[in-house]
Amino acid sequence: MARFDSEKIEQAVKMIIEAIGEDPNREGLIDTPKRVARMYEEVFQGLNQNPKDYFATIFGEEHEELVLVKNIPFYSMCEHHLVPFFGEAHVAYIPKDGKVTGLSKLARAVESVARRPQLQERITSTVANSIVETLSPHGVMVVVEAEHMCMTMRGIKKPGAITVTSAVRGCFENDPASRAEVLNLMIKK
Length: 189
Ligand SMILES: Nc1nc2c(ncn2[C@@H]2O[C@H](COP(=O)(O)OP(=O)(O)OP(=O)(O)O)[C@@H](O)[C@H]2O)c(=O)[nH]1
Ligand SMILES: [Zn+2]
Known about the structure:
Layout: H1 6-19, H2 27-30, H3 32-43, E1 58-60, E2 67-78, E3 84-94, E4 99-101, H4 103-114, E5 117-118, H5 120-135, E6 139-148, H6 149-152, E7 163-170, H7 176-187
Parallel strand pairs: 2-5
Antiparallel strand pairs: 1-4, 2-3, 3-6, 6-7
Bound molecules: guanosine-5'-triphosphate and zinc ion (ZN).
Zinc ion binds at residues 78, 80-81, 148, 150.
Domain GTP cyclohydrolase I: 9-186
EC number: 3.5.4.16
Pfam families: GTP_cyclohydroI
């Protein structure tokens, strides 16, 4: 279990404020270290969560066809710059042996994986792998679409550029027609 050290974050934020040449004691900034510590505790709370835990909820339903939860909004923090990237995740799986999980658990898994210093690719593959490892389904497809603030507000400055990542497991791997069908359902608005 990761330990969250609010005091250390407060000290660090105060140092950053000083290092950029600002006055940490002026009225608008005096509570900023505390606020940032509270915010980080919230946006990094996934560090204390295991996405696989959510899939303990299983209904013995013999549905061996597609289940897709799409347009799951998420916010994450790019691990290179610690600025946000955000967008939507689409999670599909084909259950096996009655291992059907609660729909909200797919969204909870996305949330827990996103709320850490992250890479978009890792969010995508971690969500897919945790479903494979817990539900042993016929197949899983996860697609994530996101805009990275490190590419919009700084650096290359390309607002509107969207990164799309996918993770494909099981029966979808060798079946381009099923993959295309699910992808079409996922990205159709
Ligand atoms: N693969 C991947 N790259 C990411 C993600 N988020 C941010 N990046 C990239 O991480 C890279 C870090 O590159 P560096 O050259 O180390 O850092 P930098 O000098 O700040 O890079 P620039 O953004 O090009 O200015 C950049 O190309 C970012 O666009 C992500 O989720 N996945
Ligand atoms: Zn970045």
